Amino acid sequence: MIPDNNGVMFRSLTSRGVAAYGLAAALTLLYVVIYFGDRIAGGAVQLWMQANVYGHLESLSQTLRGRPADQWFFYGTLYTVAVLVFGARMLHRYRTVPYQIVRTLSVMLFQLGFAYLLPNLLVLFKQPEFYFSYFWPLKPEYLYPYTWTHYGGTGVYFLIVAAFLSFVATPVLTYYFGKRWYCSWVCGCGGLANTAGDSFRHLSNKSSAAWRLERMTIYPILGLIVIVTALLWINSLTSGSVFGRFSQSLAEWYGFYIGAIFSGVIGVGFYPLLGTRIWCRFGCPMAAILGMLQVKLSRFRITTNGGHCISCGNCSTYCEMGIDVRAYAQNREDIIRASCVGCGICSAVCPRGVLRLESGRLQIVESKHEIVTTRR
């Protein structure tokens, strides 16, 4: 049974109607208040939110982390609830697709356990707050020199884990599974996009102009964070004699405009207008690295059986990364794209079983009805 998307192009909320603009405005405003409430009206907005919104989570915050509730605890709680609630919706919608069930359960587990409960419990036990599902370059501060000095003690072991995940686990896992092991199974950004954002995936821009823009933005952002990290280390090793305040100012600029504005305010606030993977597609430096590894080294690909394709266009329509999947199917070409996150929705919505997600010698056939593993 193909997931029901009837009427998605005609509903105001999912076709850039009035409801969509209203939701986009509300989400954007929420992000602005959470991220920058202390800078608005001399901090009055932050004080109001603390008294009337964040305070409702006081008992939960004290129980989980032994601290008063603030905007970041509120944000993490709201984010996790959204992933769990809309994840349950995904499980129902794709209940006949085993791959989607396992993948959705994975992002729910990682968000709840590794991005919410564990970091807060670490704080409760007087340890550094650490998010095990994020690491450099998506979480660049984990490799900044002053972070290592600040963490100290047992926190250094967490940072070593982050470095291991960035430079050892990432290439190995991507070689075997493609970028989907992270972007569609672990990452909280992708988790929100594939749960709360599922209703808006068809809004992603499929034009060649969008593809060119994608390449023009995502790789320079990766280059920028590499430069920022290198400059910070050079400055640290030379006691600030080389760059002075410049490297720190550049890191702060990156954190504000890329980390907050792009990935947060725009990345989520514009779901109802531009689709769900805006940040992942156009800005995420982690996605850029994984994409390059996927194209050059990985066994992962989506194979096509073009002889069965009826050109319905479902695969292209519901590709959240804006890939024209149908064109590959019609030309009987394997899909090996840096931007593909291996979410498998193209396979799930195909009425003819044309698309298969495969990893090298170990073939994983993911259709609407089953997962079949065979050896080539």
What does this structure look like?
- By secondary structure, the protein is mostly helical.
- It has a domain of 77 residues: Alpha-Beta Plaits.
- Helices cover 57% and strands 5% of the residues.
- It is built from 17 helices and four strands.
- The protein is globular, with a radius of gyration of 21 Å.
- The chain starts with 17 loop residues before the first helix and ends with a strand.
CATH class of one domain: Alpha Beta
CATH topology of one domain: Alpha-Beta Plaits
Write the H/E string, N to C: HHHHHHHHHHHHHHEHHHEEE
CATH architecture of one domain: 2-Layer Sandwich
Form type: globular
How much helix is in the residues? 55-70%
Task: Report strand %.
Answer: 5-15%
Cross-sheet strand order for the largest sheet: 1-2
Task: Please compute the radius of gyration using only Cα atoms.
Answer: 21 Å
Uncertain segments are 362-376
In total, how many beta strands? 4
Query: Can you count the helices?
Result: 17
Structural class: mainly alpha
